[in-house]
Design brief:
With about 375 residues, this protein is of the alpha+beta class. A hairpin with a 5-residue loop joins β2 and β3. The two termini are about 50 Å apart.
């Protein structure tokens, strides 16, 4: 790098300060409030019925229209879940890079201290040479006319040359290490900044999707919302029934491991707590925040996001799953739940819902993974 002590120390301090700014815990933002609307009918993309009497009580939309609303809501919350996984992944990478930069900054400072000590040794050698009259040990050795001094001097010169070579080598290696540490810190900084931007983009998308969903729901009357909730339950029940009708439950008889029982106990204790995207407890969770914390409580660390849980953990057949295993949903692995036995799961569903028990087959299953395989 060609920089002196002040330059490297300044670089190290700058790196640490930058980490402090970018690695600060994210602020929790409430979803934007829905835009007030005078419409009481769901936004189904159709124009108002011709001849409707102003001020009259609107006729409840048929189930097919509410079904469109349900499908639209599912799509919005699914997109929010995908963005949440991206946010969580960027957050995890940022944590790792922050730790790496801090470690590199410490190495830079330690290396600078080492280089200063080596320079002091070189200076001491130069001062000793000055005190001996300015002649290097080799010259003094050659000019000596004392046989014994000549013999002793030969060993002194050889040792001095070795020490000088070693000193120069250590200084060169230390300077090279400092350059490499600084280059690595710069690369990690660029990655950290990129993940900060990725987090911001994901956060923006999450808020937008949730706001649109809440706005859509706000246009429904109370009885319409109740009917919509009933349609959601019916869809989940239908999917679960179809799954059970395959006879899969007769094949699933795995017993939970000791760690699996602990993970299930943790998840069970969170029932009723609200879903909040990006949350890992203790008062709220998103889907992978719940599963990762449950297994952390059981003494086994697993990836933070549902997609990484699917990618990194051991896959097992659905028929072989046991309580504590994680069920991954949808083709993009955007949702995860914990299997608790008897065809049931515990999961954090989506914004506006709480940690709850549901049927394992109530959503499209991508596969099952086992944290403690």
């Amino acid at each position: 790098m060609g920089t002196g002590k002040r330059g490297l120390l300044t670089a190290a301090v700058t790196v640490v300060c930058a980490v402090t700014v970018l690695a600060a815990p994210g602020t929790a933002f409430a979803a934007p409030k829905p835009t007030p609307s005078t419409s009481t009918a769901p936004d189904t993309g159709t124009a108002p019925r011709a001849g409707a009497t102003p001020g009259a009580v609107p006729t409840p939309p048929p189930d097919k229209d509410l079904e469109k609303v349900r499908e639209r809501l599912d799509g919005l919350y699914h997109d929010a879940a995908v963005a949440t996984d991206s946010y969580n992944a960027a957050e995890e990478r940022a944590k790792e890079q922050s730790a790496r930069i801090v470690a590199l900054a410490k190495k830079i400072v330690e290396g600078q201290h080492k280089l200063e000590r080596l320079k002091d040794q070189a200076g001491a050698s130069a001062r000793a040479q000055y005190r001996s009259g300015g002649l290097p040990p080799t010259a003094q050795f050659l000019l000596s006319d004392n046989p014994q001094q000549f013999i002793d001097g030969a060993g002194t010169v050889l040792n001095g040359q070795r020490a000088t070579t070693k000193l120069i080598g250590e200084m060169t290696r230390t300077q090279q290490e400092l350059r490499e540490y600084a280059d690595d810190a710069s690369a990690q900084w660029r990655k950290l900044d990129a993940n900060r931007k990725a987090k911001a983009a994901a956060k923006k998308k999450i808020k937008r999707q949730i706001a649109e969903a809440e706005q859509l729901e706000s246009r429904l009357e109370k009885r319409q919302k109740e009917r919509l909730a009933e349609l959601e339950r019916q869809a989940a029940y239908k999917a679960q029934t179809q799954w059970l009708d395959t006879g899969i439950l007769k094949e699933i008889d795995g017993k939970a491991s000791q760690q699996g029982r602990k993970a299930v106990a943790f998840a069970t204790a969170q029932l009723g707590k609200p879903y909040v995207w990006g949350a890992e407890g203790p008062d709220s969770f998103d889907c992978s925040g719940l599963t990762s914390q449950a297994w952390a409580d059981a003494g086994h660390s697993i990836p933070r996001t549902s997609q990484e849980q699917w990618r990194q953990l051991k896959h097992v057949d659905v028929k072989d799953m046991r309580p504590g295993d994680l069920v991954i949903y949808f083709d993009d692995a955007s949702h995860v739940a914990m299997y608790v036995g008897d065809g049931a799961i515990i999961h954090a569903p989506r914004p506006g819902r709480t940690v709850t028990v549901a049927g394992a087959g109530s959503m499209p299953i991508l596969g099952v993974v086992r944290p403690d395989a």
